[in-house]
Amino acid sequence: MLSDVDPEIAALIQAESARQSSKLRMIASENDVSAAVLEATGSVLTNKYSEGYPGKRYYEGQQVVDQVEQLAVDRARALFGVDHANVQPLSGAPANLAVYLAFLSPGDTVMGMSLPMGGHLTHGWNVSATGKWFNAVQYDVRKDTGVVDLDEVRSLALAERPRVIFCGGTAIPRTIDFPAFASIAAEVDAVLVADIAHIAGLVAGGAHPSPVGHAPVITTTTHKTLRGPRGAMILTDAEHARAIDRAVFPGLQGGPHNHTTAAIAVALHEAMQPAFRSYAHAIVANAQALAAALLERGFDLVSGGTDNHLILIDLTSKGIGGKPAARALDQAGIELNYNAVPYDTRKPFDPSGIRLGTPAITTRGLRPEQMPQVAEWIDRAIAAADNGPALDRIAAEVRELLAAL
């Protein structure tokens, strides 16, 4: 037992378990996996090395592992309705790097949403390798609406002629218009890549439109709304499958993490069940109810609300930065992250906003009728950011609610 071998680590894991159970976990990229996913993640499959793909390995002893990976691939194809799935990328960033290796050469032009507007580092932002090794051009959101102006995206694409266009990101509260992006990509002969890391579970559950049929390459993590382990997948049409497979292995990595592959397969199986569809729609219902309650309390929501699992709040009108607000909320039992907002005038490490989401609290069992109470706690905590006892009182109320679930 772990507690016998390494009591320090065992105690820390137990402490983390207690911390998670006693807080409203509202980081938009986090979720709670099932006991089955957790069991697969901690299985003996972690002992096996498996460079290559099913039926084409470089080590012997793959009789079981090949079946595990093929199950994950088949389930991904069936769930999302794609021709091909690669389940080996170790996380979302390596999955996106595989796209660059598959379709670009250093110096080629790539287009994506800029990081401060809600994009991802690997969509060509300047501090990422993708912004240093490639000619990255970036589109923004409108100041007045907080959403992407697709006419401006088209104009930029026509001017810059990128070979790859990314749509999707990390702080986008509105529905992504995949058909419109596909039309732009076709006009400039670019490969459209839909990064659905945040919304994969919503897509799988029918709570967000699918990019399948519009984007020939789709990257995603397997945690977040999909409620699986920390891993990634790349979904493609038949035409782009070989280039992606060669980019993942041997292009970027050696042996896949077989225990993670098994857990991905379990999560995909769970996502195929009718209950998951209800869960995906419940995530959105909770987010929209929470957004409405926050608006009633005078919060400034980027784009005015949400269509998915994520809410981005500009705290400028509240007279507090995102970082001190996030720390106060954590003490109050509400875990989220500080985040830049579009056209932020503050520094990235001390931005104007906070980002929150509903995947984990929906898994925990919270419902739309409880979202006004959550909004009230958020409002109270931000108003009492310098008042430790007041924050502790809110945390006690949060624990009381969670204990009753």
β-strand number: 15
Query: What's the domain count?
Result: 2
Superfamily (CATH H level) name of the largest domain: Type I PLP-dependent aspartate aminotransferase-like (Major domain)
Q: Percent range for helical residues?
A: 40-55%
Topology-level CATH name of the largest domain: Aspartate Aminotransferase, domain 2
What does this structure look like?
Homodimer. One of its GO terms (cellular component) is cytosol. Its EC number is 2.1.2.1. (6S)-5,6,7,8-tetrahydrofolate binds at residues 115, 119-121. There is one protein chain. By secondary structure, this protein is of the alpha/beta class. It folds into two domains: 38-271, Aspartate Aminotransferase, domain 2 (3-Layer(aba) Sandwich); 277-404, Aspartate Aminotransferase, domain 1, CATH 3.90.1150.10. Helix content is 45%, strand content 14%. It contains 16 helices and 15 strands. The strands form four sheets. A seven-stranded mixed sheet has the order 4-10-9-8-7-5-6, sandwiched between helices. A four-stranded antiparallel sheet has the order 11-12-15-14. The longest helix has 23 residues, at 274-296. The chain is globular. It starts with a helix and ends with a helix.
